Amino acid sequence: MGLQFTVDERVLIPRSPIAQLIEQHFQPWLGDVDVERVLDLCTGSGCIGIACAYAFDQAEVDLADLSHDALAVAEINVARHEMQDRVRIVHSDLFNSLEGEVYDLIVTNPPYVDAPDVASMPAEYQHEPAMALGSGDDGLDITRRILKEAGRHLSEQGLLVVEVGNSEVHLMQAYPDLPLIWVELDQGGNGVFVIDAPSLRAHQEFI
């Protein structure tokens, strides 16, 4: 998105195709929702949340992560972009420290690499934190938790946006009845889905 970020071995290198959706202001999926609060869950360096703060320049943004090291880098980037007045750092194991918080938009690039892919990753990925990559045998351990809990933290017409990469196949097999919308990414990439709050809440029995 043409933005500069500080990254080091404490976080992933920013390369998420979610950037394409931010540039589109998450349209058409967000519709006419007035975005006042955004959560970047599993934020890492903070790049997604900070980019959202640029896209929605009146919104308050929370950057949440379990890793204290990652949040230290995110804090550097919040200061770098002079967004301390609108962007908050939150140490949280997913939603555990966010009880009662409600957002119009939740965006997350969680760990999603399945065990076989972790074992065969190129050497360059060894420079990135393992906890930011692997998520169980099928890559969905963390995504399952997000799907179960996100409905309580979305506003009435809020939107959940999740990147699961190659674990897309596992997710479709695990939740065939969940009305996930898989985004076509014109600039490359795969495995990003969106689901609105009403659809997510209506299908909790399938999660």
Characterization of the model:
There is one protein chain. The protein has helices at 18-23, 47-55, 68-80, 115-119, 141-149, 168-174, 197-202; strands at residues 37-41, 60-65, 87-91, 103-108, 154-163, 181-182, 192-196. It is of the alpha/beta class. Strands 3-2-1-4-5-7-6 form a 7-stranded mixed sheet. β1, α2 and β2 (60-65) form a beta-alpha-beta unit.
Gist of the model:
The protein has 207 residues and is α/β, with parallel strands linked by helices.
- Provide the gyration radius in Å: 16 Å
In DSSP terms, counting alpha (H) and pi (I) runs of 4 or more, how many helices? 7
Round the mean pLDDT to the nearest integer and report it.
88
Helix content: 25-40%
Record the SSE blueprint.
Elements: H1 18-23, E1 37-41, H2 47-55, E2 60-65, H3 68-80, E3 87-91, E4 103-108, H4 115-119, H5 141-149, E5 154-163, H6 168-174, E6 181-182, E7 192-196, H7 197-202
Parallel strand pairs: 1-2, 1-4, 2-3, 4-5
Antiparallel strand pairs: 5-7, 6-7
